[in-house]
Design brief:
Layout (H helix, E strand, L loop, with lengths): L7 H20 L3 H5 L1 E2 L10 H4 L7 H22 L1 H39 L3 H10 L9 H9 L4 H19 L2 E2 L3 H14 L4 E3 L6 E3 H18 L4 H29 L1
Antiparallel strand pairs: 1-2, 3-4
Helix pairs in contact: 1-4, 4-5, 4-9, 5-8, 5-9, 5-11, 9-10, 9-11, 10-11
Length: about 260
């Protein structure tokens, strides 16, 4: 059985996250605009967002499941480490996940920019069709008649210019995407729990089937990697940010273990 004592740092994190969600949903909708983690070359990116993004959630399901993990796992780790060390671990993991997200987003935007430049240098219908198919999920506002018109008149200057505008529209949409949520930090907590208490039994909500902690962590990490590889658009960066939270946690736990052995 998991200990359900609500420890000080976990309690504070629960209150802040739910309060931020209520405020952003009902009172001040621009809260997410200012404090979610933006693309690092966006005009509204600020370094403090590497910290603030982890307190914001777009949907109730996001905040509910993140805080559910924190509620069950957090107190055990906080009592094991102490409040100061737990808080340090939580924020380092969250910030680290945000850094990895930013690196992946930069690589994606750099690659997209190269694709757009290559298309501008050779704006044929076939090249635009390949571009459109690759980024179909992002180009949801594409005029359904446009592809047909472009195919019928592939040398028409107006059609070519419109296709280039679509390409730039995609870059603009992706550059405005942002990261919100405590997933990176909570995935890190799950990794820490699995490393420290590998034989503890956990249950996957809503299935009442107990599973060893190390198996649970291995499975959830593999699932996030799988989603990262098959996903399109900014979801790739989000899934890999979750995995990076687990990776940072693994590294920190190993470093702390080695340091404690040296001290001993």
């Amino acid at each position: 059985m998991l200990n359900l004592i609500l420890t000080p740092v976990v309690k504070a994190l629960l209150i802040i996250n739910f309060a931020a969600f209520i405020i952003s949903s009902m009172v001040f909708s621009d809260l997410n605009t200012y404090f979610s983690l933006k693309y690092i070359f966006a005009s509204n990116f600020y370094p403090y967002q590497f910290f603030t993004y982890m307190f914001l959630h777009e949907y109730f399901g996001n905040v509910f499941f993140n805080m559910l993990s924190l509620f069950f796992i957090g107190p055990i780790l906080e009592m094991y480490w102490g409040s100061k060390k737990f808080m340090y671990f939580y924020f380092i993991i969250g910030i680290g996940a945000g850094v990895i997200y930013s690196i992946i987003m930069y690589a994606q935007m750099y690659g997209l920019n190269l694709e757009i430049e290559a298309y501008i240098n050779n704006p044929t219908f076939e090249n635009f069709l390949n571009f459109q198919n690759k980024h179909l999920s992002e180009l949801t506002d594409l005029n359904k008649n446009f592809l047909h018109e472009f195919q019928q008149n592939p040398t028409n200057r107006e059609a070519i210019e419109q296709s280039i505008r679509f390409a730039y529209m995609l870059f603009d949409v992706k550059s405005k995407s942002s990261l919100m949520g405590a997933s990176g930090a909570t995935y890190g907590l799950l990794m820490a729990f699995g490393l420290i208490f590998p034989q503890r039994e956990m249950m996957i909500f809503p299935f009442p089937v107990p599973i060893k902690a190390w198996k649970f962590i291995l499975g959830i990490g593999a699932f996030q990697l799988f989603l990262g590889f098959i996903s399109r658009s900014e979801n790739v960066a989000v899934h890999f940010a979750n995995v990076s939270g687990m990776l940072f946690a693994f590294i920190m736990i190993k470093l702390w273990k080695e340091k404690s052995q040296e001290d001993y």
